[in-house]
Specification:
The structure holds 2 protein chains of 2 kinds. Chain A is α/β, with parallel strands linked by helices. Chain A contains 2 helices and 11 strands; from the N terminus they run E-H-E-E-E-E-E-E-E-E-E-H-E. The radius of gyration of chain B is 24 Å and the shape is globular. Classes of the chains: A alpha/beta, B alpha/beta.
């Protein structure tokens, strides 16, 4: 984590007058050594790659809806979106946090390595697909094929989960409060432990949700796919 | 006839019956082996090192060098330029190479870190690029490579924005020639602590790589993904898109539409560390056919020269390189050939100043030098496709780099020699008109005339 002097200034970008390139250029090269502590982005208008590739501990507020890959590969920044987001929000995030006050489209947090992604509404298909250490908290429901091949990290779902949850999952862990339509290959429901309850409480606390951790169930890998088994004949 | 008597004792048989040793065409020993192995074990074969069978290839083409109607250049006096620039469409910092021959992406995990270092050293000395692979970027590779292409693969193992920014170009890998449409499998015996750590997975498990990217599913999404990668890297680095050769004509058009600066097409002769034989031998189209389709797609879009084309998959010699460039490629990329230059399938390895016999190690794998396809086992007798601490010492980076440099220099000399013979002062001036085909199949696939005729099968109604 970089440690920058805490500044006081707020800088505003209006994406109706400035381009995403202008914004990202500033986020990549204009923050180092500056006193700016906060960026406000007006009129995002569903544009893609807003605040992608940020590598600085700065607060970013997006006042409206974002398109694909908002805060993609984020490092260090704390991003809040006052709206909905398109595909791949916080894709491959390394650290920091992203909070979506609305809903998220497909592949939220895909292949994320670290940090926390909080979606207050629902997330669509493939939420947390291929995640590698990120923690994802979803206030509502998630779609089918979520956490497919998820390697590490946690996906906490306060609502319901769609079909094939955790298909081919590795060491990531999923907590679901609502119903699960179906589990994917090699995913299984397991008993919650004290460590799980503590983790759920921690994630809920981060997200600001007040559900009882006892209401959640745990889904993790049965580890039958860790070594290839020809006799399985596509049935795991 | 008394069936209990030996045939040579039966009065009606004067001589022992002659038994033909001619094997069945449809059930030759390869197919017998396959059926009997499948029947015995219920498993398909997983292996590396590309297809074993022959398909139409660059060997089926020859050059029409200069004579009376064209004028050759003097071989040892007149220069032939080889400089190659890739990524001129959108990138602020295109890649400039001294030669049009590059090192293909091969993963750390599949290969040892020492091999990756050797590749980097050789590439730097040659003025060309090397490429990461499914394991991410190693420090050895970055430090030793002046120009490093960083692959964005479906697995996203070891993928991070710091390495994106440390790279000189980014290659979005959609498919690989040896297994288009298929994911990868790095068997557990190659997953040591470092490999496991880079891939965020437990040690010793069979690591599957997904066959498609997690956060985009089609060309329209890919366009937006490429835009994101450009934004993250401030539009500096060329974005390559690599496809395994199947529906190459359509795939190239869609890659151009998606905003690629450079397109890499990997034909079915491409190699791999480990995949199912059924993929290697039966999925995809030959490099020759793929290259012609890719060039046609670019020409129809008026993108030839604006979006550069790299062809790979079984490029072995300077002649292959020259033919690929004449067909319309801007550069080639080599994977398997580099492994062989490093000593793959040699009966000895060179360590601590001496050659050592590797035959016992080949025998332990139930194979011999020249026939080894055991990249997937991690027990490479010459220390290339391994993570074993002792085996990997059999490849010394300095020695490996020297061999790679010799190999690439040789190919480059062959390339310029052929180009000069065709009257070209720049290897990029080679053209399809310089080629004819020796077989009808190659003529049809490459769309060049059958030698001695004007006939191109399938063109003008013939």
């Amino acid at each position: 984590m970089q440690h920058q002097p805490v500044g006081t200034e707020v800088k505003e970008f209006d994406l109706e007058r400035q381009s995403v390139r202008d914004l990202n250029q500033f986020l990549h090269h204009g923050l180092e050594g500056s006193a700016i502590r906060s960026i406000e982005i007006a009129n995002p208008g569903g544009r893609h790659a807003i605040a992608a590739g940020v590598n600085h501990p700065v607060d970013i507020e997006v006042r409206g809806h974002g398109g694909y890959y908002l805060a993609g590969m984020n490092k260090h920044a704390n991003v809040t979106v006052y709206g909905n987001v398109g595909w791949g929000v916080a894709e491959n995030m390394m650290s920091g946090s992203v909070r979506v006050k609305g809903f998220a489209s497909e592949s939220a947090g895909a292949s994320g390595h670290g940090g926390t992604l909080i979606i207050e509404g629902d997330a669509s298909l493939r939420c947390g697909i291929s995640m590698k250490g990120i923690d994802i908290v979803v206030g509502g429901d998630i779609g089918n094929y979520s956490a497919f091949m998820a390697q590490a990290g946690h996906l906490l779902v306060c609502g319901d989960a769609g079909h094939a949850l955790g298909d081919s999952i590795y060491e990531a862990v999923i907590y679901v409060r609502g119903r699960i339509k179906s589990l994917g290959a090699d995913a299984r429901e397991e008993a919650m432990t004290d460590a799980d309850y503590a983790k759920v409480a921690q994630l809920l606390g981060k997200a600001g949700f007040d559900h009882n951790p006892r209401e959640f169930k745990r889904v993790a890998s049965a580890r039958q796919l860790y070594h290839w088994n020809a006799d399985a004949n596509q049935e795991y | 006839m008394d069936m209990n008597k030996p045939v040579d004792e039966h009065p009606m048989v004067e001589h022992p019956r002659h038994v033909s040793l001619e094997e069945s065409w449809g059930y030759d020993r390869k197919i017998l082996d396959y059926i009997q192995n499948a029947a015995a074990h219920g498993l398909y074969e997983i292996r590396g090192l590309g297809a074993k069978r022959s398909v139409p290839h660059f060997d089926d083409l020859v050059f029409l060098a200069g004579s009376a109607s064209r004028y050759p250049l003097e071989g040892y006096r007149e220069k032939c330029h080889t400089k190659t620039v890739l990524g001129t469409r959108f990138a602020k910092k295109p890649i400039e190479l001294e030669i049009p021959i590059t090192f293909a992406g091969m993963s750390f995990g599949s290969l040892s870190a020492r091999v990756k270092e050797a590749l980097g050293r050789a590439a730097t000395e040659l003025g060309t690029s090397t490429t990461t692979g499914d394991g991410g970027m190693t420090s050895e590779e970055r430090q030793s490579s002046k120009t490093l292409v960083y692959q964005c693969l479906p697995s996203r193992y070891g993928f991070n924005p710091d390495d994106l920014r440390r790279a000189d170009a980014i290659e979005v890998v959609i498919g690989q020639g040896a297994k288009p449409g298929g994911g990868g499998m790095l068997l557990g015996q190659k997953i040591n602590p470092r490999v496991a750590s880079m891939r965020t997975l437990p040690e010793g498990i069979d690591q599957r790589s997904a066959c498609r990217h997690p956060d985009w599913t089609g060309p329209d999404d890919l366009a937006i993904k490429i835009e994101e990668l450009r934004e993250i890297t401030d539009w500096e680095k060329p974005i390559y898109v690599k496809v395994g050769a199947t529906r190459t004509y359509n795939d190239v058009k869609l890659a151009v539409h998606s905003g690629a600066d450079v397109i890499v097409v990997d034909g079915m002769q491409g190699g791999t560390a480990a995949t199912q034989t059924v993929f290697i031998e039966h999925v995809g189209i030959p490099t020759l056919a793929a290259l012609r389709q890719a060039v046609e797609a670019l020409e129809e879009m008026d993108m030839r020269g604006k979006v550069q084309l790299i062809i790979s998959g079984g490029i072995r010699t300077g002649a292959d390189v020259a033919k690929a460039l004449a067909m319309g490629a801007d550069a080639v990329s080599i994977g398997q050939g580099t492994l062989m230059a490093l000593g793959c399938n040699n009966d000895t390895y060179f360590q601590n100043g001496h050659h050592w016999d590797a035959s016992a190690d080949y025998a332990a794998l139930n194979t011999k030098a020249g026939f080894c396809h055991h990249c997937h086992t991690g027990k490479c007798p010459v220390g290339i496709t391994t993570q074993d601490e002792k085996l990997e010492l059999r490849l010394e980076p300095e020695v490996g780099a020297r061999h790679l440099k010799n190999y690439f220099k040789t190919m480059n000399m062959e390339l310029t020699t052929v180009a000069r013979a065709c009257g070209k002062s720049n290897v990029h001036h080679l053209e399809r008109e310089d080629l004819v085909a020796l077989t009808i199949e190659a003529a049809a696939m490459a769309k060049v005339p059958l030698a001695g005729t004007q006939w191109i099968p399938g063109v003008n109604g013939f």
